[in-house]
Amino acid sequence: MAANVLTTVTATEPHARVSFGHGRPGLTGHLKSAATMAVGWLVTTAAVGALAVLRPGAGLLTQQTVYPSATALVGIGRYLVLRLSVFAERAPRPRTGGGVQTRAAYDAAA
Question: How many CB atoms lie within 10 A of CB 78?
Fold first, then answer.
């Protein structure tokens, strides 16, 4: 778990900048990214725990199929949450008070 936290904190900065083109994530971005990691850890742990309950004698091959499969699904889900929510592009707010003129209004004034 400690390794997951360390890699999440370390990787959030380059992921925000390179993968999502967002710029510096700030504390909120780091916290949201850490939250997605924590949820992913819980989901993966639940998948492995469910296997232990449903198939107590599951062999190594079955265990090693469940864990990477759960991890892959969590990775895809985490990417989508980060892309669509945490590091989503925000639309610029329109200015009020006549700061921008249309091309026709600019030409007419000239």
Answer: 18
Tell me the whole-structure pTM to 2 decimals: 0.67
**Cα–Cα distance, 57 to 70 (Å, whole number):** 19
Confirm if 31 and 44 have CB atoms less than 8 A apart.
no
Q: Which phi and psi (to 5°) does residue 24 adopt?
A: -65, 130
Specify the residue for token string 């759960």.
70
Tell me phi and psi for residue 34, to 5 degrees. -65, -35
Token representation of residue 10? 């370390």
What Å distances lie between residue 101 and 1, 37, 46, 105, CA to CA?
A: 54, 46, 57, 6
pLDDT digits (tens, 9 = 90+) for 25-48: 788 888 888 899 999 999 999 999
Alpha helices in the chain (DSSP H): 2-14, 26-54, 60-81, 103-109
